Amino acid sequence: MLGNLPNRSLQQLAKKYGHIMSIRLGNVSTMHTTIVVSSPQAAELFIKTHDTNFASRPKIQASEYLSYSTKGMAYSQYGPYWHHMRKLCMLHLFCLAKMEAFTLLPKEELGVLVRKLKRAAEEGGVMDISETIGVMNEDITYRIVLGCKRNDMFNLKAIVEETLFLTGAFNISDFVRSLAALDIHVC
Fold first, then answer.
1. Mean pLDDT by 10 residues, the chain (187 residues)
2. Which of 49, 68, 128, 152 has the least CB density, counted as fewest CB within 10 Å?
3. Is the pTM of this model over 0.70?
């Protein structure tokens, strides 16, 4: 019913029903109803005043497999477990000492990028900026996560791309829970 341009369809629905709507997809229980907010004032109300009521993400089947039954911070339900995971991350991963240790990495990689661009310009060559910046980001991620430069044993880019595909792919059982046992996927 949302058609090929869901943003336009939602805009038309907002004109008809107002700036705050709930849309129920499939036969998912009401606690998984999607709330559509289409005005800055309503969005501010949700984000500043009622943020804890809408902080959890819906449980999707992909997150159960990718995040150890939604135990990772990105997919866990808002509550005591999520607060504990956030506290651990703030103490051990995102602490000042760790952040300072990695501040030089982007500067080093940016220097390499600038030298490549300069060399290409001097030689009159063509360079794909998007791909080059993507490679630079990938190199920084390798050094932060694995502590080394690019490694053929680990293809982080492919892992990230597959994860994004799996979490974004349409899965009928996310909307019709009774079909979850059949493991039907539409790609």
1. 81 89 66 77 84 75 78 82 88 81 75 86 86 84 78 78 80 75 65
2. 152
3. no
Query: What are 8-17's contacts with CB under 8 Å, separation 24+?
Result: 10/36, 10/38, 11/38, 14/38, 14/39
3-state helix/strand/coil string of the chain = CCCCCHHHHHHHHHHHHCCEEEECCCCCCHHHCEEEECCHHHHHHHHHHCHHHHCCCCCCHHHHHHCCCCCCCCCCCCCHHHHHHHHHHHHHHCCHHHHHHCCHHHHHHHHHHHHHHHHHHHHCCCCCHHHHHHHHHHHHHHHHHCCCCCCCCCCHHHHHHHHHHHHHCCCHHHCCHHHHHHCCCCC
pLDDT of residue 187: 52
